[in-house]
Amino acid sequence: MGFCCVGQAGLELLTSGDVSSLASQSAGTTGVSHCTWPKQVILAERFYLPLIFVILGLLIMLQVVPGETIDPIPHQLLRKYIGYARQYVYPRLSKEAAQVLQDFYLELRKQSQRLNSSPITTRQLESLIRLTEARARLELREEATKEDAEDIVEIMKYSMLGTYSDEFGNLDFERSQHGSGMSNRSTAKRFISALNNIAERTYNNIFQFHQLRQIAKELNIQYENPWTIPNMLSMTRIGLAPVLGYLIIEEDFNIALGVFALAGLTDLLDGFIARNWANQKSALGSALDPLADKILISILYVSLTYADLIPVPLTYMIISRDVMLIAAVFYVRYRTLPTPRTLAKYFNPCYATARLKPTFISKVNTAVQLILVAASLAAPVFNYADSIYLQILWCFTAFTTAASAYSYYHYGRKTVQVIKD
Fold first, then answer.
1. Fewer beta carbons below 10 Å: N end or C end of the chain?
2. This prediction's pTM
3. Domain 87-177, CATH number (from 2.60.120, 1.10.287, 1.25.40, 1.10.8)
4. 82-101 pLDDT, tens per residue?
5. Regarding the domain delimited by 229-418, which CATH topology (the fold level of the hierarchy) does it fall under?
């Protein structure tokens, strides 16, 4: 009661320091006891006034001088805190926290089950559990709550954006096989930023293909050139394939033998050039060269079978293997292509995503098949179509074809190398 009455006068006392003035005013106040006011004055003089000076002094002492370094948590105190938490605090997961971690782990496994992606195993789940327990231990709690688990899930998602996200911001676990993905995303950002700057300066957001290549060259962004000499030779071999088929069906074996020799020369040259000149080697060539061989051999075998120079079962075996390999190439191209997958990106020869590595037995089989084609083409010219040696070559070709098909099935992913960003 008295403390309420002294409010205004006490404020004047604390600001002016005139205690006797407050006492004289209170003595003449109506309805206030003379024995109550001196106690309030003494309280204000001995407690509130020194308290204000102490607070002001602390405020002055706590002000940070410009350039001054402070240690909000002393090193020794932090060490003791961590030591205590490690020795005495052992949090356990609550049911809600375990459910959050389980859902996130299952979602990761679902997204990672793609071709050539790093598997998500129980090691990742154990790391999530330990991080959640550490989050609870940080606050000296004996139970890891749902909020702790959600914090860890957010941290894991944020860290994965730097490792697995593609240039479009989507999580792509195939990137774990060939680096962190940071290089490709930063390159894409630089390229897009350059396009935006040019569009702002020129007031034109439409670019020709040669302009895009020039901008990429100025930014030192490597963009694979598909128009190399080996690739042109492979395309030439593909173009010669129907010509050879027509000549064989027309039974013009002399000219067909010469054109086949020319096609074989292109096959030798493209491999030699790609091995000895680094700027002529390309990921497109690693797929185009065997594709050209498969197309050439398939047409030749069908034509030679039509001319009764190669048995039908052998041709069926070779064509079946080649069709499966070509289908596998298109499948690998689809699976290694980053999202969003579009037809323009899929058929863009400059956008290489994988390099094919044929097996040793497959190389042997290709050589044997070409020898059989050459021998079969020369048979009517040199009159040895019924030779026993030609029939032995048929059997050997069938054996190497079956062995080649099995080698691709056995080694599988080892024959595909995903290109690094």
1. N
2. 0.45
3. 1.10.8
4. 889 888 999 999 999 999 99
5. Four Helix Bundle (Hemerythrin (Met), subunit A) (1.20.120)
